[in-house]
Amino acid sequence: MNNKVVIELKDLVKRFDGELIVNKMNLQIFENEFVTFLGPSGCGKTTTIRMIAGFETPDEGKVIINGKVFNDLPPFVRPVNTVFQRYALFTHLNVFDNVAFGIKNRGYKYQLKFFGEDALKQEILSTRPEGASTEVKPIELKKLIRQKIVDAVSRALSLVKLQGFEKRKVNQMSGGQQQRVALARAIINRPQILLLDEPLAALDLKLRQNMQYELKEMQRKLGITFIFVTHDQEEAMTMSDRIVVMKDGLIQQLGTPKHIYNEPVNRYVATFIGDSNIIRGTYVRKNLVNFMNVDFDIIGYEFQDGESVDVVIRPEDFDVVPLEKAKLVGIVKDVIFKGVHNEVDVDVNGALFTVNTYENYEVGQQMGLKVDPYEIHLMKVPQDE
Ligand SMILES: Nc1ncnc2c1ncn2[C@@H]1O[C@H](COP(=O)(O)OP(=O)(O)OP(=O)(O)O)[C@@H](O)[C@H]1O
Ligand SMILES: [Mg+2]
Q: For ligand 1, which residues put their CB under 6 angstroms from it?
């Protein structure tokens, strides 16, 4: 990743039927960056993607790509390829024709440029005996281009683990296979920017993890800038350089996965990313917060003395300790074995906390809890509360 801005959204607004869907979105995306839009259904992720790709026109604001305003320019002139949420494949065509579509249907001139006219000529001349003519006829170039397309399709299909599926009709494939055809169709064009709208949603977990890995590899190798859309916070965390957390057409927080996980700006982000315990407390003074009527040391927050704050503690950040060393004591209400750890619901004076621990507890047992100062994160209380 470097700091050349490839895409800039400036005060971007989109309304449908008078309703604000994208609400003054501002965002810069850098070259070769992997940015994920994360947010619940209907928050405007697809609409934003469609404005970048050119399938929707913004009502206000600008879509700037490589420094140029693209608002009113059609999709095909944008250095962008999109994998749509609904795959939009040509169901009457076979896999080969679907994947090859973007190159096959662009005409001879485009193809020459795409594969590089000089490189093609070189390749043809290199098969001729020494002293032979150095003239290359269009028919020879066309023949080689056909072969190049076959090779490119084959490479793209192997990237999505669909080798040998060229002849299969798309409507005779499973949802997950179709989704991978859509991916192959987008990557074959080697776009500068790839927009992926929930491209893995139809895949099972194992395949999904493989494809996550393949996509990251592709980004690394091909230097493509990715904008990725998902509902799945875990996927967002593992894939992204930065995450854009959205709600109702607004960016709630923009940052690295670590940053967003460790320092969510508000209750919405904290609950959307990972499990968390959020407790209303009071900022007593520098380095001290009070919640559940107990004072806790904290590090590094500035609020007004006496101000109400939301306190976030992740389930893995509680320390389970002997009762005499505990700052909070609760009663175990529920225990779920999660493979490595136990996820325990603990009732502390009427508030239910989720705590992860390797130790075994039974329902009804008392549990002692402590939290290290640097595991306590404070957030501003929303103004309307
Ligand atoms: N063409 C349209 N006409 C009218 N309303 C639309 C249109 N497209 C989208 N909307 C509305 O805009 C809102 C945002 O839709 P969008 O598809 O961007 O959401 P999303 O974040 O992609 O959701 P999901 O996660 O379900 O795909 C929704 O309320 C949707 O109903
Ligand atoms: Mg969508």
A: 16-17, 21, 39, 41-47, 85, 231
Distance 181 CA to ligand 2 centre (A): 19
pLDDT averaged per 10 residues, the chain (length 385): 88 96 96 94 94 96 96 92 84 93 89 94 91 89 96 92 94 88 89 91 84 86 90 90 95 95 90 89 96 96 94 95 96 94 95 95 96 94 77
How much is the pLDDT for 176?
83
**Distance, CA of 288 to CA of 373 (rounded, Å):** 9
Is 385 strand, coil or helix?
coil
pTM higher than the cut 0.90: no
Q: Whose C-alpha lies nearest to ligand 1, atom 8?
A: 47
Compute the half-sphere exposure of residue 74: CA atoms within 13 Å on the CB side of its CA. 1
CATH ID of 275-380, from 3.40.50.170, 2.40.50.140, 1.20.140.10, 3.40.50.1100: 2.40.50.140
Token readout for 266 is 């508000």
Q: Which of 229, 288, 279, 258 is nearest to 381 (CA)?
A: 279
